[in-house]
Amino acid sequence: MYQTPSLKESVAKIRRAITLKQGLSCIFGSVGFGKSSLLRYIASGYDHSTDYRVALIAEQTNGPQFAFLKAISREFDIPPQRSASAQMDAIEAFLLEQHTAKKTVIVMVDEAQLLRLETLECIRSLLNYETNTEKLCQVVLAGQLELRDRLQTRRYKAFKSRIVAPVVLEYFTPEETAAMIAYRHEYWQVRNRFGAAACQQVHEISLGVPRDIVLICGYAYSIADDRQFDAISVDLVDEAASKLEMHKEREVAVA
């Protein structure tokens, strides 16, 4: 995953909160800014360590509280219970067991803007399980900006007060767009056919939205392959964006 300086700082911020067992971290960003990718990248950092137990919840985020608790329990092999309260008790017992074994439990939730109030309250309850110095459950939420806006309201004040590591994903700069393009070519071990002008055009059309940068470049590269072009020109970038109907979308967005 290509990381801008601000992304590296965000990753470090969240990992620090997890290491110190401080509780709740949040990743906020618009559609296409890489929230899910960042969440999975952070989760992958714990794959090869036996000191961490990680649950990544990408489904059931908009379901009832009981369904959410069962989704967490499945990830940790906690037996299903007959009610939400019983399931919460089972999760609490698991957290205490893992704490005794000196393991860190992490619950990561994607598409968190879909979470119901009752589910957010449930997450707040998980964060209430603690010792005098640390939380027994580390939670990382990734959601669209509407989640951040919801948490600004009085109704969610108690939940917002638990956030120790908030992160807001930003647009890429022109330099970061070019660096990302170069990074992905290097990663896939293919020659970079995008010159400075083409990279700049990709940035202007995408407005620095990571997902759109990838889409435009991928389509432009395919066209260049089909036509056996050695280099990708500004015109070819425009053609790729046009076929993806991005020019029209960007004009509407800017307006």
Structure write-up:
There is one protein chain. The chain has 255 residues and is of the alpha/beta class. It has two domains: 5-168, 3-Layer(aba) Sandwich (Rossmann fold); 174-254, Helicase, Ruva Protein, domain 3 (Orthogonal Bundle), CATH 1.10.8. 54% of the residues lie in helices and 12% in strands. The chain has twelve helices and five strands. It has helices spanning 5-19, 35-44, 65-75, 84-100, 117-127, 145-151, 157-160, 174-188, 196-206, 210-227, 234-243, 246-254, and strands at residues 24-28, 52-57, 104-109, 137-143, 163-168. A five-stranded parallel beta sheet has the order 2-3-4-1-5, with helices on both faces. Helix 5 links the parallel strand 3 (104-109) and strand 4. Helix 3 runs parallel beside helix 4 and helix 8 (174-188) crosses helix 9 (196-206). The longest helix is centred in the C-terminal third of the chain and has 18 residues, at 210-227. The radius of gyration is 21 Å and the shape is elongated.
Brief synopsis:
It contains 12 helices and 5 strands. It is of the alpha/beta class and 255 residues long.
Summarize the SSE layout with pairings.
Layout: H1 5-19, E1 24-28, H2 35-44, E2 52-57, H3 65-75, H4 84-100, E3 104-109, H5 117-127, E4 137-143, H6 145-151, H7 157-160, E5 163-168, H8 174-188, H9 196-206, H10 210-227, H11 234-243, H12 246-254
Parallel strand pairs: 1-4, 1-5, 2-3, 3-4
